[in-house]
Amino acid sequence: MLKMERCKISQYVHLHIKACLRQGDCISPYLFILVMEVLSRMLDSGLLEGKFSAHPLCITPRLTHLAFADDLLVFSDGSQHSLLGISGILQTFHSFSGLDMNPSKSELFFGGYGDSEAAVIADLIGIRIGVFPSRYLGLPLNPTKLSLATLQPFIQKITKQLNSWTTKFLSYAGKIRLIVSVVYGKVNFWSQVFVLPKGFYKKIDNLCSAFLWKNTTSSARGARVAWKDICKTKEEGGLGIRSLEEFATVFRLKQVWHLFTRRGSLWVMWLDHNIFGRRNYWLMDSTPRLSWNIRKMLEVKSVFQRLIKCQMRDVGPKRASDQ
Predict the structure, then answer these.
(1) Residue 5 has pLDDT above 70, yes or no
(2) How many CB atoms lie within 10 A of CB 312?
(3) Please, what sign has the CA dihedral across residues 89, 95, 96, 97?
(4) Residue 311's pLDDT is what?
(5) Cα–Cα nearest to 147, from 108, 207, 194
(6) Strand ranges (E), the chain
(7) What's residue 95's pLDDT?
(8) What is the DSSP letter of 98?
(9) For residues 232 and 177, what is the distance between their CA atoms, to the nearest angstrom?
(10) What is the dihedral of CA 273, 278, 284, 287, to 10 degrees?
(11) Contacts of 256 by beta carbon, 8 Å cutoff, 6+ apart
(12) Are 301 and 282 a contacting pair, CB within 8 Å?
């Protein structure tokens, strides 16, 4: 909303402009980013000034928080001193920005603390203790491998969407297009972030097959063509649909590619220091102490090696000053 007041003094016109932004205004996101940048710098400064201590795995590279829009993750060693320091920074930020933390939507996650000790600290801060899996940006956060039970809400969501299409008179081509564009699009979005169990992919394939042949989601029994044959290339008699498991392999290969090409990425820097260290990716063995995602990245070594191509060319003689 823009309000302008006009008053005439002598031969000059003075405009006193008072402006405020409504929700949904096109400039609102930019203003919000500028304000959140202040909070980001306050958290970084708070760590350097000793107001709170860093998480043991977030010292190098220095990582105090992750922020996306109004969703904020803050990392610390979990001590009472650190949580009080972070709370003080948030209160200072609230005093001049008007943006405040919502305690009812905030959670604390502890690692290496006993239940009683964590409960005392949580009561002191006034924030409840969170339980994994927790949701962040629409995706579940879990320190362990995602199980089929954890993915059940996602399966139910896809089932509900397929059921909503069964009431429409769709051709086989229309159903295939919906499956590839909508269902596969959602599943592949998750596959880019997580290593999903094979049972999950099998369940989604069964739902898609039942929807295609039987116009239902209950069972694909009696389907004219098996789903694995539909996912073959057109030269092999299929419809050229990539299977979900093949997509998952591609996404793991993409992560390995980023590991070698995106040296300035925060994710790559964190992996270099905390996971790989001085060890070489090609010589590193998969061990149970590594996360499920890292182990899957190591398992695609043989596939990645077959795809690597090196081109050597003569660049001509070099001068000493060029080296």
Answers:
(1) no
(2) 5
(3) positive
(4) 66
(5) 194
(6) 2-9, 12-19, 65-68, 71-74, 107-108, 128-129, 134-136, 139-141
(7) 92
(8) -
(9) 16
(10) -50
(11) 281, 297, 300, 304
(12) yes
What gap in Å lies between CA 190 and CA 196, rounded to an integer? 8
pTM, rounded to two decimals: 0.78
Question: What does the alpha-carbon distance between residue 253 and residue 275 come to, in Å, rounded to a whole number?
Answer: 18
Return residue ranges of the chain for CATH 3.30.70.
4-141
Question: CA 101 to CA 142: how far, in whole Å?
Answer: 23
DSSP 184-239: HHHHHHHHHHS---HHHHHHHHHHHHHHHHHSSSS--TT-SS-HHHHTS-GGGTS-
User: What pLDDT shows up at residue 152?
Assistant: 93
84-114: buried (b, 16+ CB within 10 Å) or exposed (e) per residue?
ebbbebbeebeeeeeeebeeeeeeeeeeebe
CA 20, CA 2: separation in Å to the nearest integer? 7
pLDDT at 315: 56
Tell me, rounded to whole angstroms, the distance of Cα 74 from its chain centroid.
16
Q: Which two tokens stand for residue 277?
A: 């260290």
- The one-letter code for the residue type at 24 is G
What's the distance, CA 240 to chain centroid?
29
Helix or strand (DSSP H, E) at 90 = helix 80-97
> 4-141 is classed in which CATH architecture?
2-Layer Sandwich (3.30)
Collapsed DSSP state (helix, strand, coil) of residue 166: coil
pLDDT digits (tens, 9 = 90+) for 32-76: 888 899 999 999 999 999 999 999 999 989 999 998 877 899 999
Using one digit for the tens of pLDDT, what is the confidence trace for 228-287?
898 888 888 888 888 999 999 999 999 999 998 887 889 999 998 998 877 888 889 888
